[in-house]
Each structure stands twice: as structure tokens, then as C-alpha cells.
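Might you be able to review the protein record set out just below?
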Amino acid sequence: MNGIRRIMVVATDIKHSRETVRYGVSLARKYDAELVVLHVEHDPFGASGWNLPFLSVDEEYKAILKEAKKNLTKVIRAEAVSGLPVKELVREGSRSM
């Protein structure tokens, strides 16, 4: 019996993540597992939650998150095949460790 039920790959740069997703798809198929693709989007403005009169950085950041999700979906669709369970996660956070 196979103990691997979930494979997670981290797509740090969505535009260059195709190879990472490809490996994840391959492993998920091999182990008949769910694939989870995670992308953490850093807030480039560093000002979320601030009330600035000239620019809505919160709205701009939301647009960045939406674009990241759209691009991640494209990469996954290009690599994944039907029948393979894939969960896409785009989260807010810091890239520093």
C-alpha cells in the first residue's frame, strides 16, 4: 500500500514554474496522489493596510494576486492532464526565511 497521498510543489516564480509543476505532475501520477501547487506572493509595496490618499496599494496588490492565480492556472493546465486532482494555492506572505 502506498503511503503518499499528497505531493506539494512550490512555484516561486510562476513564469518559470513549468518544470517544477511537471515534476509534481509526474510524482502525483506515479503515486496516484493529489498535487498541491503553492505560490506565495510577496507584497511589493510593503504598505498593505495603509490609508494613502494618492494610491490604493491594497487594490493594486489584489490585482497582483489575481494575476498570479491566473498565471498559475495556465501553467498547471499546460502540464496536468484530466483526472489528476490538482489544488492551486496562491497565498500572501514574505519570501524571506
